[in-house]
């Protein structure tokens, strides 16, 4: 409901969930399973129905004004959005859908009603959980409101199956949200291994980016990258502080170091680009840091390939697709040991996990993974290997199995207590 599969991820509210929905929908369609995705209409020039790929339709539902509503305003549009879906249903054959799969709690609220009306199973993926997020807020971040917490609890109680990305998320659903352990399935997200391939020509990837960034990025230079939505929770400021610390420890590094920050603003708070620009100035590293606009597919793969290390310093991260994509490109990842990142990154093999967010710890880890060439080479090989364990193909198989199982459980006669 709050973001469209047609949006460019890496800015605003579009991120890993959008990629997840697009990739699994396409894989389902390839297997002959038709998918229709309902999303809120956010511009007047969007058609009522758009084809995302053969067998995958996106339906734009009018619910409130096209512009001006933030994610936090959308609980007030749940009724209008649901009414829009039901109006679409009135024009269809009965038995339109076999399963409803909702993504994020707002859509879960809509899916709950549709499930009851259509008599089909509701499978829900939370993607992020308010109670987990609120437990590790960044400075300047606003806590998720009680309305979301209660809304999530309702969806968790109502869904026939809950899909978690990692064992940690499954545990959070059970421990913090009182989910029925029998209803929870852990399904790892994937990575597009056809787009995110290791570099054949790293010098070329660096040359093109170096022109765009206006920074020197030769073979012997050290390039660190942050890729993703620029918001306090993603903590790009940690990378900037670590870079300043690396230079303080080894002043000779300054002329060889570039820090790329790729992505657009999201939400409000300390890590907005303007604040990061100011921080770079305050740290005395404006000559080292470059901000680049968000990008898709092959262009994004070039960023991963150009980097010695991709940093994922998030305070909270349910999975971290960026980590997988970077590793698939043969780039080690230095990540915070939070949420799903210990699954996405194999510590010591495909990257390094850091236990805190201090500049000192991050400078040490980045120095090991990016500046020490022997370690970098070993981690790069491990990164390619680790990423191969994930694919959207596998994710989709597991989702379809979950749908089938949820449908069978609905049809099975219920035990009646006498
Ligand atoms: N992304 C992108 N272009 C960008 C930056 C990010 O397409 O310039 C995508 C990236 O490929 C990844 C997603 O946005 O698939 C971010 O997902 P992740 O799980 O890392 O974080 P989220 O945004 O879901 O918190």
Automatic annotation (TrEMBL):
Entry keyword annotation includes Cell inner membrane: no
Where Mg(2+) binds, per the record, is at 304-305, 307, 331
Keyword terms = Glycosyltransferase, Magnesium, Metal-binding, Transferase
Domain Glycosyltransferase subfamily 4-like N-terminal: from-to ranges: 15-190
Reaction equations catalysed: 1D-myo-inositol 3-phosphate + UDP-N-acetyl-alpha-D-glucosamine = 1D-myo-inositol 2-acetamido-2-deoxy-alpha-D-glucopyranoside 3-phosphate + UDP + H(+)
Does Cell cycle show up as a keyword for this record? no
Quaternary structure and interacting proteins, as annotated? Homodimer.
Q: Which family does it belong to?
A: Belongs to the glycosyltransferase group 1 family. MshA subfamily.
Name the record gives this protein: D-inositol-3-phosphate glycosyltransferase
Q: Which organism is it from?
A: Actinomycetospora corticicola
């Amino acid at each position: 409901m709050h973001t469209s599969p047609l949006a460019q991820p890496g800015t605003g509210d579009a991120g890993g969930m959008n990629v997840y929905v697009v990739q699994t929908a396409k894989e389902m369609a390839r297997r002959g399973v038709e998918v229709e995705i309902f999303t809120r209409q956010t511009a007047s020039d969007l058609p009522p129905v758009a084809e995302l790929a053969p067998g995958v339709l996106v339906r734009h539902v009018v619910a409130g004004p096209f512009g001006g509503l933030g994610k936090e305003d959308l609980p007030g549009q749940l009724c209008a959005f649901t009414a829009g879906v039901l109006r679409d249903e009135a024009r269809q054959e009965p038995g339109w859908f076999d399963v409803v799969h909702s993504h994020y709690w707002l859509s879960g609220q809509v899916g709950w009603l549709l499930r009851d009306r259509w008599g089909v199973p509701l499978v829900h993926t939370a993607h992020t959980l308010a109670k987990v997020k609120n437990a590790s807020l960044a400075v300047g971040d606003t806590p998720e409101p009680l309305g979301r917490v209660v809304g999530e609890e309702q969806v968790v109680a109502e869904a026939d199956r809950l899909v978690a990305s990692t064992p940690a998320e499954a545990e959070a659903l059970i421990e913090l949200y009182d989910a029925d352990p029998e209803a929870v399935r852990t399904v790892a997200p994937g990575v597009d291994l056809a787009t995110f391939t290791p570099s054949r020509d790293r010098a070329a990837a660096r040359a093109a980016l170096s022109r765009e960034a206006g920074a020197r990025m030769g073979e012997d230079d050290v390039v660190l990258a942050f890729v993703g939505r620029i918001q306090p929770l993603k903590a790009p400021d940690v990378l900037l502080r670590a870079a300043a610390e690396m230079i303080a420890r080894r002043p000779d590094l300054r002329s060889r170091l570039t820090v790329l920050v790729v992505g657009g603003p999201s939400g409000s708070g300390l890590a907005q680009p303007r604040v990061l620009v100011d921080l770079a100035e305050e740290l005395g590293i404006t000559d080292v840091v470059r901000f680049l606009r968000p990008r898709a597919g092959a262009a994004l793969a070039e960023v991963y390939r150009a980097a010695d290390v991709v940093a994922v310093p998030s305070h909270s991260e349910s999975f971290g697709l960026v980590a997988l994509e970077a590793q698939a490109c043969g780039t080690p990842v230095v990540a915070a040991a939070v949420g799903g990142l210990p699954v996405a990154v194999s510590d010591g093999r495909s990257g390094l996990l850091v236990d805190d967010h201090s500049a000192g710890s991050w400078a040490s880890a980045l120095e090991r993974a990016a500046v020490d060439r022997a370690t970098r080479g070993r981690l790069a090989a491990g990164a390619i290997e680790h990423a191969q364990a994930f694919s959207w193909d596998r994710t989709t198989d597991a989702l379809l199995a979950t749908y089938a199982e949820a449908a069978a459980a609905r049809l099975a006669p219920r035990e009646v207590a006498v």
